[in-house]
Amino acid sequence: MNYADEIRRQAEGATRAALPAITAALWRDYSDGKITENEAESLSAFIDARRSCGVGQK
To answer: Which phi and psi angles does 34 have, rounded to 5°?
Structure first.
């Protein structure tokens, strides 16, 4: 499993309140070269969609 897969897994199981921390981690991993720009943008869009639709509210 690579870094992008791990971030997506975390985002899928996260509460809405936890999503900002996951977003910060993904951009940190991008700046460290652990994920590509395309992966970062895709993950960011996925997290934004989760946040927008209210999924994970607990």
So the answer is: -85, -25
Distance of alpha carbon 52 from alpha carbon 2, whole angstroms = 26
Torsion of CA 5, 2, 45, 36, to 10 degrees: -170
Q: Which pTM value belongs to this model? A: 0.84
The residue ranges of every structural domain in the chain are 3-53
Could you read off the pLDDT of 38-58 as tens digits, one per residue? Answer: 999 999 999 999 998 865 444
Q: What's the Cα-to-Cα distance from 34 to each of 14, 19, 48, rounded to whole Å?
A: 21, 19, 21
- The 3-state DSSP class for residue 2 equals coil
